[in-house]
Design a protein that fits this description.
157 residues; mainly alpha; two-stranded antiparallel ribbon
Amino acid sequence: MPDEDFPPFGGPPVGFETHPGKTKVAEPAAVDKSVVDQMNTVLTRLRDAERRFGDVQELMRFHEEESRKNINRLWTKVKESDGRITELSHQLAELEKQLHLVINEIRLTAKKEDFEVMKRFVEYIKPVKFVTVDQVERIVNDILEEHGAIKEKAIEE
C-alpha cells in the first residue's frame, strides 16, 4: 500500500483536506458495487447467524429446564422406589421369621410314622369300648339296685 493512504502521525484523517482556515471533506472515492453487495450479503448472513444463534440459545435453555424437571421427577421416583424396596425388605425379613417359626412348629409335630404307631395302638386298644367312670358308677348302682330288689323279694317270700 502506498504511504499516501495513511495520514502522517498527528495529521488529519484520510479524506479531509486542510486549507489554511478551512477544513473540507473530500469526496468519497467511488466504491465498487460488488464490494457493497458482498458487504450487504455478509451483514445479512451475520444477522441470520445471530438470529439462529439466539434461537439455539433459547432452545438450549428450554432443554436444560426440561432436563432439570425430568431429573427431579426421576430422582423423586428413585426415592419412592428406594422406600418401597426398603419396606419390602422389612416385610420379607418378617415373613422369613414367621416361616422359621412355622418350620420349627412343623418339626415339633408328630411324623407320619409316629401317627401310624399311635393309630395301631388305638385300633388295638379300641377305646370306643371303654366306659367312663360315671358310666361304671351308674351300671354298678343299677346292678346293686337290682340285686337289692331281688334280695328283698327273696326275703319276703
